[in-house]
Design a protein that fits this description.
Largest sheet: 4 strands, antiparallel
Order of helices and strands: EHEEEEEHHEEE
Strand content: 25-35%
Number of helices: 3
Strand order of the largest sheet: 4-5-8-9
Distance between the termini: 28 Å
Shape: globular
Structural class: alpha+beta
Radius of gyration: 15 Å
Length: 137
């Protein structure tokens, strides 16, 4: 299963985290995207298939793990096979997140990160878990 990791601070180099992600069984070939922020960094390992490549626009990164899909074809703009770009177009800072979640199906965790905030959404059943861990540093 692909993952994304948010690290607040910089206690572990991004290269070390990416190496650990890429060495897991059956995940070696999946691209890993890294984005540095003043608060830390985001690393995201792509889900399988070309439809879920993260969308990067300036300091904003919108990505997913799992296999989310839009319920309605009318919610999908061109190109139709680019989930994260379509998601980014609908996930504005003023978007109603309940409406956004209700427009999706599948098992997923979504992330939108920028210089000043991080938002994580999971599928309503919570089938794609999101964990947090802390250290003393």
């Amino acid at each position: 299963m692909s993952d994304f990791i948010l690290q607040f601070g910089n206690s572990v180099p991004a290269e070390k985290i990416a190496q650990a992600l890429s060495q897991r069984p059956w995940l070696q070939g999946r691209p890993i995207h890294t984005k540095a922020y003043p608060w830390g960094q985001l690393l995201l390992q792509e889900p399988p298939g070309a439809k879920h490549t993260p969308c990067k626009d300036g300091d904003i990164l919108v990505g997913c793990v799992g296999r989310p899909r839009f319920l309605s074809r009318s919610a999908i703009a061109e190109p139709k096979n680019d989930f994260c770009n379509n998601l980014a177009n609908q996930w504005s800072d003023t978007a109603d997140l309940k409406v956004l979640i209700n427009s999706l199906t599948g098992l997923y965790a979504l992330v939108k990160a920028s210089t000043d905030r991080v938002v994580i959404l999971t599928d309503p059943m919570g089938a794609q878990p999101v964990y947090s861990a802390y250290n003393r540093d």
